[in-house]
Design goal:
Blueprint lengths: L1 H40 L32 E3 L8 E5 L1 H13 L4 E6 L4 E3 L3 E4 L5 E6 L2 E3 L15 E6 L2 E6 L3 E3 L3 H4 L22 E6 L2 E6 L2 E3 L6 E4 L2 E6 L2 E3 L10 E4 L2 E11 L5 E3 L3 E11 L5 E6 L5 E15 L3 E7 L4 E17 L1 E6 L16 E14 L6 E4 L6 E13 L9 E3 L1 E5 L30
Parallel strand pairs: 1-3, 2-4, 3-6, 4-7, 5-8, 6-9, 7-10, 8-11, 9-12, 10-13, 11-14, 12-15, 13-16, 14-17, 15-18, 16-18, 17-19, 18-20, 19-21, 20-22, 21-23, 22-24, 23-25, 24-26, 25-27, 26-28, 27-29, 28-30
């Protein structure tokens, strides 16, 4: 009996030992599982204990995970060291703000250029692609070095601010982008401000103020930009572009200061803006199609132009362009198509409608003999111009030249020009009764003022059933 009690006690001790071992193994498994989660969570970056000072770079270039310095996606350029006194070089701070916002994994990041400050930055390329959409919000002033003598020798003299390979960006705000162009305009190589203009030899490159290159889904909204050394905006190789509610201004005699130039760019909307400068308000270059321009006030300047196209015997293709509901005042030209002799390709599917002209020298013009010197010779090849519609074009013109001017190639005539509701009266003096036509074919849907009897009817034999100037839209 005593022996059985001892055996029972031994069995109980044995079972207790097994239970304790099982608990230890269970605890061990759970401890390993907990540590695994703990290690995984440590890979997530956490905000720093304090914000970086204005003199401290926001990150260092190492492969370890970077902390997020602004969980809300707002990046003020002053946080990265920008001074904003109009004298200090703020280029590095702007680049740091861009790089940090560009690498943020938030869906939208805002780079803030605050009001009340003037930031001077050098020629710079802001490069993508970025993780999320970028809003570059300019509420203060931004400017380049003042003139060619202040421009660093190792910096490009052809462009100032470049946005390259960006998909999804808005450049907006209520601030001012000041190109400080006067000293560039006064270079000896630029046309002097005399009655005939003259130039002298010497360096002539001048920077485009803002250039978007190989980018998409772009918006420019609300800004003021003035006095660019050359073009104010240029879009090269871009798609899905919207420009709205901007104000561009430069001196009436400032050379090559086009407001907006597009090249090899498609799906463009330019709305509700004022452009006053020394060259074309909007110029449309080769490779551009699906462009809608609406509610633009243009002038002084050279008007709204397609071209110039076909220079140096090149092929140019432009199609599906609409210019509508706009005012063009005190300009050298109104709506213009200009091409060089010797080019090829085509301009087609263009409509100009509901446009008011105010004291415009050449309200309606096609010039296929465009040339900047007296040395251009007539050539057989030309850019083919066809299917151009002018509707409800009214206002006043300068009597020094005819209000309608269609100068088409000798060998490649313009075809399918259509005019309706065109009423153009002299701003002063007697009416010019003879609009100019040369090898231009089309029709009048209504009578025009002044009367236009020089258009040829039908389609010329040289253009029937041919592939002349044919362009394929990609």
């Amino acid at each position: 009996m005593k022996h059985s009690h001892i055996s029972l006690l031994a069995l109980c001790v044995f079972l207790l030992i097994i239970f304790l071992c099982a608990q230890a193994r269970h605890h061990s498994r759970h401890s390993k599982h907990w540590h695994s989660h703990s290690h995984k969570s440590s890979e997530i970056s956490t905000p720093p204990a304090s914000a970086p000072s204005s003199s401290t770079p926001p990150y260092v270039d190492d492969p370890s995970p970077r902390p997020s310095y602004n969980a809300s996606g707002f990046f003020d350029v002053r946080t990265f060291g920008a001074v904003g006194d109009g004298i200090s070089d703020d280029t590095k701070a702007f680049k740091m703000a861009w790089d940090t916002a560009c690498q943020s994994d938030l869906p939208q990041n805002v780079i803030r250029v605050p009001s009340g400050f003037s930031f001077m930055i050098q020629s710079t390329i802001f490069t993508g692609p970025c993780q999320g959409r970028i809003v570059f919000k300019v509420d203060g002033s931004v400017m380049p070095p003042d003139g060619p003598d202040s421009w660093p020798k190792n910096n490009s003299r052809r462009q100032w601010l470049v946005f390259y390979r960006i998909d999804g960006m808005s450049l907006e705000g209520v601030g001012l982008i000041d190109g400080r162009g006067q000293k560039w305009w006064d270079l000896p190589c630029k046309p002097h401000k005399g009655p005939y203009g003259s130039t002298l030899p010497g360096p002539c490159d001048s920077p485009i103020a803002i250039r978007f290159f190989m980018s998409s889904n772009l918006t420019v909204r609300g800004l003021r930009i003035k006095d660019s050394p050359q073009f104010h905006f240029r879009f090269d190789g871009c798609k899905h572009v919207q420009v709205e509610s901007i104000y561009i201004t430069a001196a009436a005699l400032s050379p090559n200061t086009d407001g907006i130039h597009i090249e090899n760019t498609n799906d463009v909307k330019i709305y509700d803006s004022v452009i006053s400068n020394g060259d074309d308000c909007v110029s449309i270059g080769s490779g551009s199609y699906d462009v809608d321009i609406r509610n633009i006030t243009c002038g002084p300047g050279h008007g709204i132009s397609i071209g110039s196209l076909g220079s140096h015997n090149s092929k140019a293709c432009v199609s599906n362009i609409a210019v509508r509901d706009s005012v063009i005042k005190m300009t050298a030209n109104g709506v213009r198509i200009k091409t060089w002799q010797g080019g090829s390709g085509s301009v087609s599917g263009v409509s100009f409608s509901n446009i008011h002209m105010d004291r415009v020298r050449n309200p309606i013009i096609i010039d296929q003999f465009y040339c900047l010197t007296k040395e251009c010779t007539n050539q057989t090849s030309a850019v083919f111009v066809s299917n151009i519609v002018y509707t409800n074009i009214k206002g006043t013109y300068d009597i020094r030249t005819p209000p309608m001017h269609f100068a088409c190639s000798d060998s490649v005539p313009c075809t399918n020009l259509t005019l309706s509701d065109v009423e153009l009266l002299p701003s002063e003096g007697d009416m010019v009764l003879d609009p100019y036509c040369w090898n231009a074919y089309g029709n009048l849907q209504t009578l025009t003022i002044p009367p236009m009897s020089c258009l040829l009817e039908g389609i010329p034999q040289s253009a029937q059933g041919s592939e002349i100037g044919h362009c394929y839209v990609q």
